[in-house]
Amino acid sequence: MTDIDLLPSEVEEDLRSSVRKLFTDRSDAESVAKLYDDPHTDTSGLDRAWAQELGLAALLVPEDLGGAGASAAEAAVVAEEIGRAVAPVRFLSSGVLATTLAVGVRAGDLAGRLAAGESFAAIAFTASSPQIRAELTVDGDGDSATVSGTVAGVMDGAGADEYLVVAGTGSDTVVALVAAEHVRTEAFLSFDQTRRLADVTFESAPATVLGRGEQAAQAVRTAEILGRIILAAEQYGVAQRAFDLTLEYIKGRRQFGRAIGSYQAIKHRMADLWLEVSQTGAATIYAARVAAAWQAGEQTEDEVELCSLVAGSYASTTAVHAAEEAVQLHGGNGMTWEYPLHLYLKRAKADELILGHAAAQRRALAPLIDLTA
């Protein structure tokens, strides 16, 4: 066990400032909204910016594999800013999930490519599944194999350079890598166009086996835990920004000769929302700190899994509630395309389903805290 400090470090504040500036300059609400007018809008430049220019793709890669050797605490800061800007980037899918899986199976070459921002990877699993695996067939006993099957609704499934495949459970777990040229993808219109989904098909696709057995199973488990925490941090960013936009609006919007924020009913709703968002921030920051301690060997896996489920389920609910309150408290303006609130509501609702719904996470949490589900 180790003491957990929730206050941000100087390094984290500098990181937050750099990431916020990037998204302020290159991913404002107007440019994000263009994805709903034209789903084929190219966002690869923004991905190169965070991955290569800021070096954020290397955060979760150890130094001995060519990375920055940072922790979940720093990755959570980045995710908060992504949520705040509803930025259309591959950070969660490639920079967190795929990277963590590659590191877990000690796939040095892949981890190095991801860390350098030379490649973006996607894991072939249905985004709404709480488990990072799919019903795919992986044939082959050695380092080479073939993969067959289709996975529906893969997060950032279209446009990835490489695809990680996870099949089996426990000692039968297999992690394999397939190049994009051997994969057929079909993107479809999703509720949140800033994180597009695609159906991914493998037809006897040649693959390189990166890991098998318990080591591979542990790598998958680590990716699931860190993924929930980083997603929760993003949801906290969505909720905080929705609250901030609403607070700014009710202080300036006047009705019957006074700011609408001066009415008691509005004050009560904002006070309740502030408390909910603040509690979410505490839960997600604590979970990220515990995960960082776990990565350093100072916390148990059971503790970090518990924290990930608490943060994930709570942040998921808060993000949706904050976005819905923002739309309502903006009145008729909240329903217009010119206000960015629809971007936050769509991201919150889509994130609510990623890596399992909050209800499923609470069911998984129950036995860990001795509750009967």
From TrEMBL:
Its cofactor is FAD. The keyword Flavoprotein applies. Residues 227-366 form the Acyl-CoA dehydrogenase/oxidase C-terminal domain. Residues 10-94 form the Acyl-CoA dehydrogenase/oxidase N-terminal domain. Belongs to the acyl-CoA dehydrogenase family. Keywords: FAD, Flavoprotein, Oxidoreductase. SUPFAM superfamilies: Acyl-CoA dehydrogenase C-terminal domain-like, Acyl-CoA dehydrogenase NM domain-like. InterPro entries: AcylCo_DH-like_C, AcylCo_DH/oxidase_C, AcylCoA_DH/ox_N, AcylCoA_DH/ox_N_sf, AcylCoA_DH/oxidase_NM_dom_sf. This is Acyl-CoA dehydrogenase family protein. It comes from the Bacteria.
